[in-house]
Write the structure tokens for this entry.
Amino acid sequence: MSCPMRGLHDAEVPFLDPYPDDIQAHREELYRQGPITPVELPGGVRAWACTHHAVSKALLNDQRFVKDPEQWADYKNGEVSKDWPYMGVLTWDGINMLGLDGAPHRRMRGLTAHPFSARRIERLRPRIERITDEHLDALEDRASEPLDLKREFSFRVPITVIGELYGVAKEEYDELGDLYARLFFVDTEPGEHLRIYAELHAFFTELVARKKAEPGEHDDFTTDLLKSTEEGEDPLTEAEVIITLLMVMAAGHETTVNLINNVIRALLNHPEQHARLKKGELSWEQVIEETLRYDAPNNAILFRFATEDVSVGGVTINKGDALVTHYGAITKDRAEHGDDPHVFDPARTKGRHITFGYGPHVCPGAPLARMEANIVLSRLFSASPTCAWRCPTRHWRTRPPSSSTASRSSPSCCGPDRPRTRPSPPRPDDRPFPHPRHRKDRDGRSRPVVRPTLQHRPPRLLPMDADPARSGGARADGR
Ligand code: HEM
């Protein structure tokens, strides 16, 4: 346990490492420091980390802690520069729901509630199912190729879902995905996040202008938000619509991608639980909930700031200090989850994770994330029950994120193991399996393409993607 006298600016405090060799061990170590411990972030920035369950719930609901970065003493007195890479996850505009407090925050939650309602989310189910199937069909065509499961599937499905949800043109999905990936990438050049943020702002400004210029009924989130600019006594402004679009995608995309990847990794690393799932002894809901606890997609959320001195958990957090909610460490809390929090046990009944947050900022997208993960994972695993299992997850590479637990790549052999039961939509060059299809070679000659079968599909890996800055290769814990 941490010494009660420990202060934020003591010489030796734990480092909040964005590249831990073993993230589970790192979380455990932080938990053991708890319930509130001073930490150092990259760049020498200091903050308090909340690492136990009960105290985190209390502080997430405590009005003495606010999101407004203007309250941050170390920033105001120049100890933290504007170029600090994590600045990309702070909110400076004063109209962003994620960064608002009190009444202005309640107003924004109220005005944006409709698109997150249970009925509205449920209406997305068939669209998510279709998008997932289309992406699985595309993988089926490349069944013999080694591929990066994250890049080709678990990143693409959520960006397509959210892109469709927003009414963004298909050609723009990649650009958007790339911008967000770079916004949250802690290794992005100093100051680069500000330029990316401006680019995203310009993108959504144009999207809103486009929607307004196209009269007619659109069934999308952007249109829903625009309707809120015309209703009630204190409607949303157009600037608020733009920021909400920017922020919701930031909050909802990367986290969902990470959840999907983390479930895949957890099942690969725990074949006994995978077997129970296949036998029907576990449900997908149980597997997803336990992954949210065992491997929180949002490892740590930055920041809240103390508006007065607060004594809590044996320490005094001074006015102006920054507070990190470390969800990764919180999930190791014995008082909440029992004596075995390090065990991946989807049948666990003790405790409730708070990975979707708690208090006024609790995630409004949780039902969408849960539904999407369920659809995507159940369809992926039923199309390919052993998919990717041949490639050890220690070859998965970490993409060092600012606050989440993203893998940079998940090299896998992931073609479906058997023909899908649902026929793929016909393509002009489709011939019934197993007749060979033909492709043109470099000289323009037609060559038969042999559809792979399980027997002759070797377990190959993608070459590690070029990342000179981080060429250390696989990590011991597979991240
Ligand atoms: C596994 C997936 C997800 C996780 C783990 C997650 C987690 C969280 C957490 C912990 C917060 C609270 C942040 C804080 O207290 O500062 C939050 C807020 C938020 N999330 Fe999610 N989220 C996920 C998916 C989504 C999705 C799919 C959407 C929407 C499409 C979404 C939209 C939001 C929004 C708009 C907020 C801000 C709420 C506010 O400030 O009042 N999230 N999320």
